[in-house]
Amino acid sequence: MITPSNGLEATGNGDPLRVTRAATVVLDGRGRVTGWSPEAEELLGYEAQEVLGQSIDTLSAQAEGEDGAAARWWQQPQLPECHHCSTLRHRSGRLLPVAAVCRRLPDTAAGPALLLLLADAAEFRDWQMRQAMLYGITTQSPVGLTIYGPDLRVAWANAAARLELPGPFTQYLGRTEDELYPGSQVLSARYPSTVTQLMSRVLDSGQTVVGLQYRGRPPSDPSRDHVWSLSYYRLQDPEGRPLGVCEESVDVTDLHHAQRRLALLNEASVLIGSTLDLGRTVQELAEVLVPRVADFTAIDLLGDVLSGREPDARSAGRTDAMRRVVHRSVREDLPEAVVTPGQTVVYPEGSPQWQCLADGHPILNAVMDPSSPWLLQDAVRSALARKLGIHSHLVVPLRARGITMGVATLMRWRTPESFAAEDLLLVEELAARAAVCIDNARRYTREHQSALTLQRSLLPHELPTDAAVEAAYRYLPADTEAGVGGDWFDVLPLACARVGLVVGDVVGHGIHATATMGRLRTAVHTLADLDLPPDELLSHLDDLVGRLAQEAEAAHPGEVEGVVGASCLYGIYDPVTCRATFARAGHPPPALAHLEKVVEFPEIPAGPPLGIGGLPFESAEFDVPEGSLLALYTDGLVTAADGDPDTGLERLTFALAHPDRPLEEICDIMERALLPDRPPDDVAFLVARPRPLPSEDVVSWDLAFEPAAVGQARKLTDARLAQWEMEDLTFSVELIVSELVTNAIRHARGPIGLRLIRTPNRLICAVSDHSSTSPHLRRAQAVEEGGRGLFLVAQFALRWGTRYVGDGKTIWAELPRPGPETGGGRSAVVPGLDAFAASIP
């Protein structure tokens, strides 16, 4: 049972040297035992008849010293409350340390008498320790101890608990915890919302509660919140009847704030810098600061940083070079904002932002002074501070690698507490982490812009609109952060209205793969201009990739940069014959979608990937019916979903099931049906709808291998131009046809063929022969009678060239078809006429 005694709480057994509990011995004036209690018999083992009349010295362990004299310790002067420690001999012979109190009794007829109180010394020391502990808890312990009675009202509190209860303690007796700390909150969903309800549960169940977090404002400090760690347990009598509840409390406000700061730093390390987007990184910093640290924050960065450039020393102190990136407030209407994101922000000289940017040190204004000179210079911000009641101001630099990239401004007006030193340390740590992420984002922005510039320069800007096919495409690099990859595609106008279609895939991702892709794409353009068949073009491309691999390995032996490899699919579509010829190097075949048949994948011989060398490539030719659709793609398209190319081809078949749809719609369907949100590999695909030429737009003649064939060729050409209502081209076309047929008769072998092709934008003249001799353009001397044929062709045609076939060659020239805007004059349709006239001596 717990009983109060002078503010102390003793155990139920009480003081072992109290008369009611101690072993009592009565002595006469000479120390002889005249009284012996049952407790003494229990303690020392002697029955009363054995010791009555005997001297107490016979029981003392010091009774027989070297001189045989008795110690007579019981005759030493003792104060009533003083204790003496001695050693007595138990009846069994063992020595028993005892604590004793000797008190004088009133004299009797037989003389003076003494009362000797004895107790086991170990039990006595244990009791003393408990008493000392209880006294320390009451007066010295830093742990607050409050006892609530069965009605859960304050009955008693120790000194630590009373520190939070100013004034006489009696005014708090009989009040509940909720009355002492109104508006407080239990910081755990596991327990009731009020402490009184919690103590009621403890009183009823006897279950102990340990380490409960509790927030409120004590009567001693009602201006700010405190956090306590509380423990509760039930008090009960020896029979187990509840007497009340004891509360132990420790103020852990500083620890709680430190834990919150640590948790915020840990959270910030995850939230800030989740991407390499500079704007998003700054936004993440603002989201961490508001509302947990400040009521408002504004983050301003130098313009050089936003552009990806390295800030220089001239930026120090130039607040006019800063732009607002983001601001955030506890209120959605942002009443603190002076400028909008994206605008230039200007701070007056001497302002905290100006100083922070100039010297790179934080500025803490725990109490914002409206009379500060910089505020007096800034009427807008001064009026806003007074209106909102902004009372505390904190500005920290955003520095990384010794460079100040901007400043973060924090303000408080709703939060009553001002910024303190610990807030400054926290914000500095957050700003330092964010600054590294911002600098990484800045450097990435620069690299990203360079990569995108490289990509834009290497991939087609737009597909030709006057080609023999209508085309659309998608390009999706796996490296979405960098935005570049190694896949490429192209639509190449070729001679005689034909068109080249190409899709390729370079091994790897990123800048290295993109640079290799650019070199291969340029090589394909060059080889296509030579009008090589697809298999020969891939052979030349294979040689190039082999040389590139050797160069890369020499520059980066054993490294990833030394690996160069690629696959490629190249084909030529002829709108005159409506046939396509394709060859592939380690690449998937094209898909041919029909209007009334299932999608087919033409059997193109599978050549080795580019760079292997030593193996031939083969071409295959197939019909491309009108209304059908050709789809060229990299393997990333059919393996992106689950890695199974067969499943990918089935999905591709589904996406191409209706080739009469608009091409952009078909591309969207392919992207949705075959690609996840983040493809694991680069993806490029090209869909092309052929535009076959009607038979009336193509005419061919076989000419005799004799000089008279030149005149015949002019007559046939004039008649066809008249039939096509293209008389405006007669002069230039006659000249070109005459020169090409004449050259064939003079320098080649027969037979000779002449073909005219009319496209929506061009007229094409083609003369074929059975010689592989390559013609050369040269400038004839003034005294020479010939040598000006190809020079004339080059002057009158938009472009011209030579196409080699299996049994000879074809020399072709293109002229633009006259339109209404040309006016029909000769000079309007003969672009080289003036230059030609000027070149004649």
Set down the secondary structure blueprint.
Layout: E1 3-5, E2 8-10, E3 23-28, E4 33-36, H1 38-44, H2 48-51, E5 84-89, E6 95-108, E7 111-120, H3 121-139, E8 144-148, E9 154-157, H4 159-162, H5 177-180, E10 185-186, H6 195-205, E11 209-216, E12 226-236, E13 242-251, H7 253-271, H8 278-289, E14 296-302, H9 303-306, E15 322-329, E16 344-345, H10 352-359, E17 363-365, H11 373-377, H12 379-388, E18 392-400, E19 403-412, H13 421-458, E20 469-476, E21 487-493, E22 499-506, H14 510-529, H15 534-555, E23 566-574, E24 579-585, E25 591-593, E26 606-607, E27 619-623, E28 629-633, H16 635-639, H17 645-655, H18 663-674, E29 683-690, E30 698-703, H19 708-723, H20 730-747, E31 752-758, E32 762-769, H21 789-796, E33 799-805, E34 808-816, H22 826-829, H23 833-839
Parallel strand pairs: 24-26
Antiparallel strand pairs: 1-2, 3-4, 3-7, 5-6, 6-7, 8-9, 8-13, 10-11, 11-12, 12-13, 14-15, 14-19, 15-16, 17-18, 18-19, 20-29, 21-22, 22-23, 23-24, 24-27, 25-28, 28-29, 30-31, 31-32, 32-34, 33-34
Helix pairs in contact: 7-13, 8-13, 13-14, 14-15, 17-18, 19-20, 20-21
Overview of this protein structure:
This protein is α+β, with helices and mostly antiparallel strands and 841 residues long. 32% of the residues lie in helices and 27% in strands. It contains 23 helices and 34 strands. The strands form seven sheets. It has a six-stranded antiparallel β-sheet. The chain is elongated, with a radius of gyration of 51 Å. The protein starts with a strand and ends with a helix.
